[in-house]
Amino acid sequence: MDFIKNQLDGYGMSEQTIVYLSSMIMVLFIALISILANIITKKIVLKTIIHIVNSNRYTWDNIIVEKKVFHKLSHLVPAIIIYFSASIFPSYQVLIEKAAMTYMIIVTIMVFNALLNAFDAIYRSFEISKIRPIKGYIQVANIILFIIGGIVVISNLIGQNPLIILSGLGALSAVLMLVFKDSILGLVAGIQLSSNDMVRVGDWIEMPKYNADGDVIDITLNTVKVMNFDKTITMIPSYALISDSFKNWRGMQVSGGRRIKRSFYIDTSSISFCTQDMIEEFQKIHYLSDYVTTRLNEINAYNMEHQINTDSKVNGRQLTNVGVFREYIHQYLRNHPKIHKDMTLIVRQLAPGDNGLPLEIYTFTNDINWAVYESIQADIFDHIFAVAPTFGLRAFQNPTGHDIVQLKESPEYSRGY
């Protein structure tokens, strides 16, 4: 500054003009230096760092570059130059230093924020992130970072110790508790969800209260984001997963088997004892030949031992078409390539009702993919409906308009029977 003043003094200018011009020249010089420093930092230093990062075998540093941590850090260079140049302007030194320091604090906060986001992204690249998500903790750290940063900025502007401002926040604790109520509840819920392994990213959850039925795609401090199967997105408060009930289908996904639990309703009027012709036909069926032979031998031995008159089907033990049909379905499922052999397989009768006799199939497929599962289930029941008449059984169905038309067209109806 003195050098510039001495140079201007030789032109015969007034002292006020010299001070004004020298200050303007110095401002332009500092601005030029700051611009050059910024260009050198971004064009040379930053590119060198990015080249080093891209050329090594690690991936975590690439994520740091993607989150622009170094880019944000480069903004500190011009601010540092301006801060240390403030003493050149004694009248405005305090103001310039406060402005430059405030800018540096804000940039530092943004750098740490980018670092936290980079750490979260690095953590997500590991499989454990689906089991132990930390995004909620990262958001808490961000909130604390911005609060501390705000306090430091205010203390710098007013020239007070940050501890004095912190002590004054005690009076605002009730207000802060009200403002950050959801965040506090979300933090507690996030800790419980994580420690108890209740839900992970990628889990299929079902929560009818919030119309949620789909995959968890994100777990944050305040919400759990669920993409439903109709591609809509439901946002569930984190603490709702602690206070309310929900279904997690992860057990099914991990087990490798998906349950089929569906009934085939049989018209009870079609249930009967097996005739000799039916038995001979059943013995031709691959899945039933051994069963029918074994059962007939047991039944004949029992009837002979107890001297039962078999002229009447009511006496003694007899084969029924529904019993043979149930065994056929059981053997059919046992030999089905898409049925899980190590899980429960039951074909059972439920209590008969207005819709006939329910024959429930309870088994598990060995493919949990939704589309494949539905295809397997449909194929099984297609076969059951198609094969039931072979056993003399009819599927129960309430009368339809077609049935009434057929009845009206029958000869018995026209004769008034």
Automatic annotation (TrEMBL):
InterPro entries in UniProt: LSM_dom_sf, MS_channel_C, MscS_beta-dom_sf, MscS_channel_2nd, YbdG
Protein species of origin: Paenibacillus glucanolyticus
Subcellular localization, as worded in the UniProt entry: Cell inner membrane
GO molecular function, one term: mechanosensitive monoatomic ion channel activity
GO cellular component, one term: plasma membrane
Domain Mechanosensitive ion channel MscS C-terminal, chain residue ranges per copy: 327-387
Entry membrane topology: Multi-pass membrane protein
Domain of life the protein comes from: Bacteria
Record's keyword annotation contains Transmembrane: yes
Residue intervals passing through the bilayer: 18-40, 76-95, 101-119, 140-158, 164-191
Protein name: Mechanosensing system component YbdG
A Pfam family assignment: MS_channel_2nd
Single GO BP term: cellular response to osmotic stress
Domain Mechanosensitive ion channel MscS: 182-250
Family according to the record: Belongs to the MscS (TC 1.A.23) family.
Upper classification of the organism: Bacteria, Bacillati, Bacillota, Bacilli, Bacillales
Keyword annotations from UniProtKB, A to Z: Cell inner membrane, Cell membrane, Membrane, Stress response, Transmembrane, Transmembrane helix
Keyword Membrane (UniProt): yes
